[in-house]
Please model this.
Amino acid sequence: MDLLNNLALGFSVAISFQNITYCLLGCMLGTLIGVLPGIGPVATIAMLLPVTFHLPPTASLIMLAGIYYGASYGGSTTSILVNLPGESASVVTCLDGYQMARKGRAGAALSISAVGSFFAGTVGTIIIVLFAEPLTRMAQKFGPADYCALMALGLVAAVVLASGSVAKAIAMVFLGLLFGLIGTDVNTGAQRFTFDIPELSDGIDFAPIAMGLFGIAEIVVNLERHLTRSGTIKVGSLWPTREEIRRSIPAILRGTALGATLGVLPGGGPTLGAFSAYTLEKKISKHPEEFGKGAVEGVASPEAANNAAAQTSFIPMLTLGIPSNAVMALMVGAMIIQGIQPGPEVMTKKPELFWGMIASMWVGNAMLVIINLPMIGMWVKLLTVPYRFLAPAILLFCCIGAYSLQNSTFHVMQVAAFGVLGYVFVRLGCEGAPFLLGLVLGPQMEEYFRRAMLLSRGDPMVFLERPISLGLLIATAALLVLMALPSIKKARKEAFQEEG
Amino acid sequence: MNRFLSKDFLSGLMFIAFGLIAIYFGQKLAQGTAVRMGPGYVPRMLSYILLGLGGLICVVALVSGSEPVEKPKWKPITMVTIGIICFALLFERAGLLPALVVLILISSLGGEEFKLTEEIGNMVALAILCTLVFKMGLGMNISIVRGVW
Model:
């Protein structure tokens, strides 16, 4: 069995001392930022991108992945205990988790969410293993036109599922694509938009932009808002009652299935998974009136869903090289920093990295259960650190990190510039994530577009003549048309209002 | 409420501005033909799309209205930006420690609360942490105080 061999290879990589250390480090950091409000996984990963340059490729990707799924565990802890979601995917957990805590069932809510998350993470990992090879094989048959169409679909779908105005988000994608073109044109060597700044001729660096847009802008917004904190609650017994177990098992199964499906979609991911799972539970429950008052299903299902989605959102990134959300865009950036071109070749050319990373996700999930349950008191204490201590630390790490990319203060200046731009985006209600996706995919997409047009002798019909490309473009157009339908527009608006 | 000061209208203007900037600075790039695209082909295409989308967003915002922009608070964003710029200017010339002190001082002036004793404690802790992590842990070639260490 190929699959078993691959898994064996993966686990042998994942449990090497070095990788397990970085996995643990990533999980701890992830939990930490999940617990702390005001800093999310995107900002953290952006901040750590330059540091990963000093690490071996596999270890750095394992660590970054750990931060991503660790954040969803940490976020649920604070949602349940203090009604403060540490990150967006755990907003729904607040609804019933905090109510359970107020009834003295905090411990049970925590252990159900941890076990549910672990189960969902395991299933998510299995799904990645099963789907990785067929998808990669399919992707290897793609021509330039097909790739271009695939990226278009990925970008549009990401936009559609992300929140806010579709037109603005699409414009942000194009703006990102445009920024991605800064630097030397690969085909002709011409300098584009470099303004005679030598640092820009290699292309605009990805990490300072992400730090500015997400890290700095987030800090500034938080400084304006003045974060307040409510009192903590006692954890109590970690053991759920028999009734709670009976009710949460089917909920965990449903949440896992829904989350895993939504995670694969471009633009999907933990947040969408958690929200959909909560809505589903409320709809099919025999006691919908209990929701919002401490229904155990309202904790179990979204928690399982967000973790399943966190795992399966790696699938498009690992097999096709197409990031489906901002964190995945950063993972692509991390691979590029390490000199790995993300795409179907990763699996064949770097099997130890590919399978090692997948296996480490399962190892990481197991570690998280251990980190989270017994050490809960410690994480809760961290909540008392005021934001005014946190903000300078984040700023400082961003600055040093940006400098260390190429030992140049030009990158630090870039962080400042993109911080201002990011702040403008926030104020104007423009999402940073579509911009980042466009930025990452920009150079590749241009390359495929030009190659496809060259092969077809300048005939744009090539995109409609190849069956794969045609199918992908039809799907893209269908998505856009769907979004314009009034009923969907309305439903979307309601869904995001609930979120906000 | 002034309908021109809405989030959507202003973001439409922003996209138009970026489109115009890209067209202006991309003038010299050869366009080429659809078969052999020059370096200017794709940027120009993207700029026109941005202009179109920006215009569309503006028109829709004016016709159907949108949320007004919140009044920005200038202090945090200004202080944080100045802090980072000072850090960039000082880091190579003076070393990590002075850059760190200036960054923390200026940026925390942007927050609501400011207590000097707390900030000093924060600086000491961060200076130790950064030295341990970046200088010793990762072995980065940075000086803590230029000319001294």
In short: Chain B touches chain A through 71 residues (CB under 8 Å). The radius of gyration of chain B is 23 Å. Chain B has a mean pLDDT of 85.
